[in-house]
Design goal:
about 180 residues; alpha/beta; Glutaredoxin; 5-stranded mixed beta sheet; 6 helices; Thioredoxin_domain; peroxidase; signal
Length: about 180
Amino acid sequence: MLVRWLAVPAVLMVFAGSTWAGECPSLLQGSLPKLRAKESIDLCQRFAGKPLVVVNTASFCGFAPQFKGLESLYQRYKDQGLELVGVPSNDFKQESKDGAETAKVCYVNYGVTFTMTEPQQVRGPDAVHLFKVLAEQSSAPKWNFYKYVVDRQGKVIANFSSLTKPDSPELIEAVEQALASKP
């Protein structure tokens, strides 16, 4: 009788764990270190069920002024649940090797308040999991400030080149579509 009572909670834990794991889309599995912080961002815990814009950034890229537009986009839609994640990368040889300098560009020069990670690889076999899945669902970034709009189920609904400004009607339309998506 005691064995049966012990087995029930164990079975419930297995089902609860598999349900939770099933709710986390592949895109959001794993974690990334937050820029200039001692914490890591558990992508699933932080972003599951939320509309998301993911951008690979570079401090010394000619498109770096887009940080201001990205911040404006975030401020415009954050109260509706939009999350924005910037992932610095030196894959195109335009990011600082020093995280402190990257943080200065983002936080001081451009006033970024959305989530930024430590620099990561975003292309090829060594790309972080997030960008491998983004590439599988759409395409790998072709340059810095490549933008992905992800719905609440963790599916890319649109991606945009570096030339697409954060306030472009096409990007805004995709963000609003992601906001309207069902969890």
